[in-house]
Write a sequence for this structure.
């Protein structure tokens, strides 16, 4: 089973993002989608979307503590996002799965783009596997550098001295390894860029990483970001009490 | 058969967009994808993506004439995009299909988000069908207003006096209607916002429009737009001759 962990939060494009991600996941056999809302309650929007998707899923929620939440005006890198949500999913796995259950865990943000071929690569993860991620870190791609089947370093330009200069979308972890290391989790206070390292440091060394995607030469996932839609007309109409029908879900 | 016509052009996110769109279309039965590259040749990237998709497809190309092409620095609404590409697809249908062939034609840009339920709605189009589009025109959604099963007007804020104030993603046309009206096409010189009208005016009147999606009360397609990825590190490295390996496709 591939456990796909997706943190998500309410915004104008949320449903669109979850619709296209769910349509990708629907192609993947033996998949279990753990969706964790950054919200004080499970919303109707996400609940119905999951129910209608025909996917095997678990629906959780936990609100990011106020003091860690990014404000509209903060630059988008100021605070880590989705951290407590991913940790809650890890906790759920530890409470609901046993060492005898086989599986691989992948952290899939709701706005990235995933090729179906990625899931074939993920499936054979023994401990921790890694591969390239497109359109990230100010580069066309970041990737592990492989020699003789072993990861020898990383092609990355931004803070290259991080312990694991790997994007969230660029690795998967065996379920058993997470169950055996019950303290491994993401650090909410990790410095920018160090979130992935905060988990991976307790799980593997660089030499142990398993390179996927033809020795890390193929890009099968893209760190796409969706524009925030402009709502100029909506705001003008709302001032006149003529905003769009709020009962129509978008 | 639903003929989905997608204009597309080379840019950093092109492959990502086409990957996730193809993964949506792969769920739809009896679909034929007509992909038209805005390019002087068919590119290897698009050719391979189509070949690997298992979709029924036709791959065409035509470059937008220089004088109509948008420059990097132009605002994104200055020139219509994908116009000659959509017209070439119409020409292909007229040359390769006959009045006895049943089908519906839908214009699906590569960056929008489509719910699978949309294709169920499209399939029953008799002449011209319409439905809401999310996140467009500065509003949460634009939509046709329906009374007694008939379109009586439109909820839209931007240039509401357009003959058909409908986004490209918000209508479908029966193949037979396009074959019977061989002159109907998009006008490359149409004023901003009038592109859809330039085709629809020769095909239907407002009263004839067939409302879909529960009398146009459900949003099943979203006019999402993808951020242009920042390439700051890539540009710095390229200046030192250390840019990312160009043989790795992104
Ligand atoms: O306040 C927030 C912001 C983001 N996210 C989720 O965390 C993940 C990463 O966020 P984002 O894509 O905005 O980060 P970036 O693209 O900048 O890495 C996504 O799945 C978001 O839906 C969240 O749960 N709460
Ligand atoms: O020079 C261009 C620009 C755009 N397009 C295609 O035309 C459609 C509409 O373009 P875009 O999504 O940029 O328009 P907008 O979102 O602003 O309506 C998309 O399928 C693009 O891939 C194209 O073929 N050539
Ligand atoms: Mn993201
Ligand atoms: Mn678009």
């Amino acid at each position: 089973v591939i456990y796909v962990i997706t943190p998500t939060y309410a915004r104008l494009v949320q449903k669109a993002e979850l619709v296209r991600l769910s349509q990708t996941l629907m192609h993947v056999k033996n998949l279990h989608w753990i969706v964790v809302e950054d919200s004080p309650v499970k919303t109707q929007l996400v609940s119905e979307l999951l129910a209608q998707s025909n996917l095997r899923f678990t629906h959780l929620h936990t609100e990011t503590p106020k003091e860690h939440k990014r404000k509209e005006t903060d630059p988008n890198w100021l605070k880590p996002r989705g951290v407590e949500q991913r940790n809650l999913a890890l906790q759920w796995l530890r409470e609901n799965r046993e060492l005898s259950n086989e599986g691989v865990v992948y952290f899939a943000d709701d706005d990235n783009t995933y090729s179906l071929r990625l899931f074939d690569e993920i499936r054979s993860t023994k401990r921790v596997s890694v591969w390239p991620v497109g359109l990230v870190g100010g580069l066309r791609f970041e990737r592990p550098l492989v020699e003789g089947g072993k990861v020898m370093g990383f092609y990355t330009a931004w803070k290259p001295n991080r312990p694991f200069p790997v994007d969230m979308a660029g690795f998967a972890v065996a379920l058993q390894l997470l169950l055996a290391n019950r303290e491994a989790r993401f650090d909410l206070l990790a410095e920018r860029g160090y979130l992935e390292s905060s988990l991976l440091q307790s799980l593997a060394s660089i030499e142990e990483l398993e390179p996927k995607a033809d020795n890390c030469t193929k890009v099968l996932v893209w760190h796409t970001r969706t524009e925030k839609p402009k709502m100029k007309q909506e705001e003008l109409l709302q001032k006149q009490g003529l905003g769009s029908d709020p009962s129509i879900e978008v």
In short: The pocket of uridine-5'-diphosphate (ligand 2) is lined by residues B 6-9, 38, 64, 70, 76, 81-82, 85, 109-111, 225 (CB under 6 Å). The two ends of chain A are 32 Å apart (CA to CA). The CA atoms of residues 186 and 195 of chain A lie 6 Å apart. The first helix of chain A runs from residue 14 to 25.
